[in-house]
Amino acid sequence: MLTKTTTTMGIVLTFGLLAGQAHAKPDIVTEDDVKSCRFLKTVMGSSGYGKNLGGWQPQAKASAEKEASQIGASHIVWGELRSSGAFNGIATAKAYDCGR
């Protein structure tokens, strides 16, 4: 019985630690807000291929925000939103680390 309890506690602890490693969504700001921050890179998100009836922009932005989160960006400044056809597009943003 002790082994089962110990194993279960280990699994719960592991999942808790992994959940704590999730990156926070970066704040969307202007160039003026990131003057004292460290530029990380320009990130790009795509809406994917297909007819996105909800509009391509939210999907492309979410994809770029996800990439920014993965590299540890605390803030992003939106750049270009470019359509590629009637239902698809690309969003770019500059990703910064402003130390949260």
UniProtKB/TrEMBL annotation:
<feature type="signal peptide">
    <location>
        <begin position="1"/>
        <end position="24"/>
    </location>
</feature>
<protein>
    <recommendedName>
        <fullName>DUF4156 domain-containing protein</fullName>
    </recommendedName>
</protein>
<keyword id="KW-0732">Signal</keyword>
